[in-house]
Each structure stands twice: as C-alpha cells, then as structure tokens.
Design goal:
By secondary structure, this protein is of the alpha+beta class. The protein has three domains: 256 residues, Spore Coat Polysaccharide Biosynthesis Protein SpsA, Chain A (Alpha-Beta Complex); 58 residues, no CATH class; 112 residues, Jelly Rolls (Sandwich), CATH 2.60.120.10. Helix content is 20%, strand content 35%. The chain has twelve helices and 30 strands. The longest helix has 14 residues. 35% of the residues are buried.
Length: 454
C-alpha cells in the first residue's frame, strides 16, 4: 500500500498564525513527546514512522509549501508538487499519475489518501492499514474510513451505510453521502448509524488511472503538470467517490478530531499561555498564543482566544472562531512570516514610495549547519546586518566569514548565499523597484556547489 498525504489549506482558519505559506498543519503548538512543541504534520509523520508506514508515504503539496515541509520534516520525505492550488481531485489525480509514471508503482497497488493533519492516535493507522484487505474482500472500487460520531456535528460530511459485511475486517456498503447537515439532520443520521467522513479512502491505482484515461486526461506526470491549470477545481468526493458504483466504508470508533478552528485546536494545547504574556486569575478557559517579542496581557476575559503574530492580532470568543475565515476574507497582504528549509524570516516593515521604490525589512534566522540558496535578484539591492551567531557568505567571487556586527551590501545582480556555523540571525533591508520573493533566481541549494559558480 502507498499512502498520499494531502497538504492543502488556505491559511485563514487559524489566522493570524497561519497564512498562505504556513497553513494550520504547520503551526508548532501541539505538545511533543519530549516537551517540545510540534506541528500537526510533524505529529502525523511521527505516527506513520511508528506504525511502519512512513517509507510508503508521499506528501502531495503546493509549490509554496515545499520550503516549510523541508524545514519541519528534514530528510528525504518524498513530495509530489502541485504547480498551483486547485482542489482535491486535481491533487490526487496528479499524485496518482506521479506514482504510475515516475515512481513506477504497480497498477494493482492499493493507494490510500488521507489529510496531512488529522488529530488521532496510533489505532487510527491500524484501521487505515486494513483498507487494502477490505478492497480485496469487498471487490469495491473505493473503500472509505468512517468515524463513529460522538455528537451531531454540523461541520462534517456523513456516510450512511447499508448492512455490515462479516469477515476478518467489518465493512458496510455505502448507501449515500450527506454534506454538512443541520444539527437536527445530524441527529437523524446518527440514529441511522452514519459515520463522519474523515477524508480517508483507498483505491487500486489502475482504477484511477483508467478513470483519467476515460476523461481524456494525461497519465504522464510531466504532461499532467503542464495541463494542471486546465483541470476543474472540484473535490475528489464529488468527481469520483460519489460517482463510483461500488463503495464501502470501514468503521473507526477511536478518537479523531479535526483541529481546524481555534476552539478545537486549543482543546489540545495544554498550557493557556504560549509565548510572552499573562492571563489574570479570573479568566476561565482562555488561551493566549503569542509569537511576538512583546508581552500581551489578558484581563477578565473568559472563553476567548488571543493570538498574536507577524500577520495580525486576533481576539475572539472560542465559540465564534469557526466564523474567522469568512470574517477576514477581505484581508489581502503578503505573508509576514515564513519557515524555509534553512530557518525562518519575519517581515518587520514594508514601505512603498510614490516613485515606485519599495523598502522591505526582515529579521532572518539561519539554523546552525544550514544555508540559503545561491541566488541573485534583478530589481533590488540588499543590506545585511549580522546580529548574532557566526557563519560564512559566498558573494560573487569569494567566501568570507561573518559574525555579529558585520554589515554587507549586496547590489542587484550579485550572486550570494549564506551558511550558519552556529545559529545565525541578521537584519535584511531590501530596496528596489520590486521586493517580492519572485525576484529571486536560484542556482543551487548545495553549499558545496556554490564555489563551482565563482
């Protein structure tokens, strides 16, 4: 069995800590095994490793998420890159074509798809592993995992089953699907033994490849990537699962949560204060998550979330937090914080002048032993002021050491890269007619290769 983890997300539901470059699955707010904070994707990958499934797993992610995945999951984690964000049908079709034409996966192999961020325990992955057997026993085109509901939720889809099938692994034939019902309808579905649709399903690779052929879509990865923008933005549920003739569901009765809003996420954050700040004693069920370097005080407010980050400040009642995505939908600004494979940066200031000049100021951290790419910019010059740590820079024709207090000027068109010998921080001031990330021409990420270009 091969596993495809879908890494999507627009970065709005957990704003201001999440953004287009750091969706909810990358927020390091969950408790780890050794007292450190970890993200949802780090937690899930660790669980896959413990259940011996990681070696068979691939992550399907948008091109904008590659850097943060490389940062949080160091090593050779296989990533299938989406050229742009579409929906789950295009993403899964592209991943299936990659497995077929690039990874040379056998057409009879079982492919299991799941979100990259479910909050579950290890028994979940044991049930997931049974989907291969269920496909064989049932003769179904698609096998789903259904979670037994614990309350009549209005935000999940429901799977209504027919009779159970006896055997080593119990499964039901699917009678129908119901999308995000009212609470009253959800109660009726629960009485009919319905399951929550948790977004986990399996199929044989040849099933989807044949479906793509029937739709006139390419089954070679390079060609699918070229045509990706032409694929309809539609979910895999609507395009494939609800059109399939033979679909079964495997029950899962263990714990499962979708930590997609602040009210559900804070249920799994043990400390009410994360970051610099204080909460008064008369506050009940209140959480402060502060990523800024300034203190935040919360006084006399109960059942609220206060979240502060480089992209903004949020104060909300927990019960109102599911409305956040719609409420901030009109906000359009560049992400002010990003994790890269070498560390992170935070935007401190952005100025746009009437003459077309722009000035962007960043605080940048390079982790010890890591380096930036070797690159240049066409439309801006940069000034670096090293504030802490030691490292070395490669600028055009030479490598030189850098330490706290050093200042470097890098004109437009100048090749440059930097490596940290120990954790290294510096302030970068960009000045020019374009200070976007798009104005970057990269030659290599390998420090050893940089001297080949001088």
């Amino acid at each position: 069995m091969k596993i495809i983890l879908l890494s999507g997300g627009s970065g709005k539901r957990l704003w201001p800590l999440s953004n287009e470059l750091r969706s909810k699955q990358f927020l390091k707010v969950l408790p780890g095994d050794k007292g450190q904070s970890e993200s949802m994707v780090q937690r899930v990958w660790k669980q896959l490793q413990k259940t011996n499934l990681a070696d068979s797993s691939f992550i399907a992610a948008g091109i904008s998420q590659i850097e943060i995945i490389r940062n949080q999951l160091p090593g050779r984690v296989p990533i299938i890159v989406e050229p742009q964000r579409r929906d789950t049908f295009p993403a899964i079709a592209l991943a299936a074509v990659y497995l077929y034409s690039i990874a040379n996966v056998d057409l009879k192999e079982t492919i299991t798809v799941l979100p990259v961020d479910p909050f579950v325990e290890e028994p979940f992955f044991q049930t997931l592993s049974s989907l291969d057997r269920v496909l064989a026993d049932s003769g179904a085109d698609i096998a789903l995992m259904g979670v037994k509901p614990t309350y009549p939720s209005e935000k999940y889809g429901y799977i209504l089953p027919e009779r159970a099938k006896a055997g080593p692994v119990a499964f039901h034939k699917v009678k129908s699907f119901k999308e995000k019902p009212s609470e009253e309808q959800a109660l009726e579905y629960m009485e009919q033994s319905a399951y929550w649709n948790c977004g986990v399903f399996s199929f044989k690779l040849d099933y989807l490849i044949q479906l793509l052929i029937d739709k006139g879509l390419p089954i070679q990865y390079e060609e699918m990537s070229k045509q990706y923008s032409r694929l309809s933005k539609i979910s895999f549920d609507y395009e494939v699962i609800e059109q399939a003739q033979r679909v079964v569901v495997v029950p899962y009765e263990g714990s499962w949560k979708d930590l997609g809003t602040w009210n559900t996420l804070t249920e799994e954050i043990p400390s009410p204060i994360n970051g610099k700040g204080m909460i008064s004693d008369d506050c009940q069920n209140t959480h402060l998550i502060n990523e800024l370097d300034i203190p935040v005080a919360v006084l006399g407010l109960s059942n609220v979330v206060v979240a502060t980050g480089a992209d903004g400040i949020l104060v909300t009642e927990k019960s109102s937090s599911p409305r956040l995505k719609e409420f901030i939908s009109h906000i359009e600004q560049r992400p002010m914080y990003e994790e890269r494979r070498w560390g992170w940066y935070r935007v401190l200031d952005l100025q746009k002048h009437k003459n077309g000049q722009e000035v962007l100021t960043k605080r940048i951290r390079i982790d010890a032993g890591k380096n930036s790419s070797y690159h240049y910019h066409l439309h801006r010059e940069e000034y670096w002021t090293i504030t802490s740590g030691t490292g070395e820079v490669c600028i055009q024709d030479k490598v030189q050491p850098v330490k706290a207090g050093d200042v470097l000027k890098i004109p437009a068109g100048t090749l440059h890269g930097i490596r940290a010998l120990e954790d290294l921080e510096f302030i970068e001031v960009q000045s020019g007619t374009e200070v976007s990330e798009e104005d970057t021409i990269r030659l290599t990420f390998q420090w050893e290769e940089m001297t080949q270009f001088v």
